[in-house]
C-alpha cells in the first residue's frame, strides 16, 4: 500500500509540473471593430505576459501549394505587430495557423468591380475560422510528394521571413468527403508531418533561432477524430491542441453547455460529447498526455427554449438571440454574457453534471446561454492536470472581458499562483527532434521537492 501511494503521488507531482503551455489563438477576425465600449482586439491589447505561445490565424495554402499571406498588404503588418509582443514576454513563442481561402485564379477571372467584391468575401471566408475554409486543399496538399515538398520548402521560408517560431495545422477534417477529403488523408497526413519534421530538424539554425514547433488542432471527440492517427502523428509534432469545445450547440434540439466537463446528456441522442469524452477518445494510451493541450473557448452557446423548463437538457428550437457585439447566431462572447449578468435581467445557475454555468433571460426565460466562468475553468484546469496534459489552448482570446477575467483565472489555476510568468516553459526547448517541454531550473526544483514530499507521505501512509 505504501509503494502504491508513493507511486501515485509521484505521478501526480509529475503531471502537475507538466501542465505548462498556455496557447492563445489570435486572428484578424477579432471582435470589437464596431462595438461600443469594446476596443478592437489589436495585437497590442493581447495579454502577452499570460501566454507561452500565440497562434496567428490564418495563413493561406495557395493554389500552387505554397504557404502564402491571406490578405496581402494587411497581414504582413499584423505579423510584425504580433511578433513584437516577444519583446514584452521574452519567453513567448509564436506560430502561424495554416488554412485555405478562395483561389486567386477564381477572383481574377471576374470583372474588376466584381473581383473587388469577391476579394472582400474571400477574405471574410478565410478569416472566419478553420471550419469555414476550403479544406479540399489540405487533401490535395498531402496527396502527392511534389505538393508536400513544395509546401514544406515554402513554409520554412515563410515562417522565418515573418518571424514566427512554429506552424499550427487546422484541418477540419481528413477523410470528410463532404469537404473535399479522401480516404487516404489520414496516412498522407502522417507522411506529410514526417517529411516536415525531417525538414525542420535539418534546418541550419542561425542568430540564436530555435527549432520550429509543429502542432495540430484536433476535434474534440470521435466524430472525425478517428481520422487523425495520433499514435503515429505524435512522434512528429510537438503538441496537439484538443478542441474540446463546441461539443454541443444550437444544431441540437436540447440546450446544453457547449463544453461540459462530463457528459450531461446520457440517455439521449446527444450523449458522448464532453471534455472527458474528448480526452478518452483522442488521447491514445500509447502517447504521453503531455503532448496534448486542452482546448477551451471563451464563448458560450445560445438557445431559444420552447418549453417552460430551463434546466440543462431542456427542449430548444434553435439558436438564441445574437450577442450585441458579435452578432453571431448560436454563440456569445463572455464579455457579452457578463453584460447580461450585470443587467439584472438574467438568472444564472450551475450545471452540476456538466460542471459549467448557464443563464436564462427575457420575461419568459426563453433565452438560454451556456458558458464557462472562472469556477468551471478551475475544474477544467484541475482535470487536465490530473490527466497529465501539457497545458491549455484558447479559442479565441478576444471573447474575454477587457480586464481578462477568464485568462487570469485560467493562468492562475494552471500555475498555482499569480505572478506565474517566471515559471513558464517556452516552446519545446530542444534543438532537434519532436521536442518535449523544456525543463527550467524552477520546474526541476519543484519536481524534486514534490518527490521528496511524496516519499515522506508514502512512508507515512
UniProtKB/TrEMBL annotation:
Keywords linked to the UniProt accession: Carbohydrate metabolism, Chitin degradation, Glycosidase, Hydrolase, Polysaccharide degradation
Pfam families given in the database record: Glyco_hydro_18
The name this protein goes by in its record: Glycoside hydrolase
Gene Ontology MF term list: chitin binding; endochitinase activity
Organism in which the protein naturally occurs: Jimgerdemannia flammicorona
TM regions (residue ranges): none
Record's signal peptide: none
SMART domains: Glyco_18
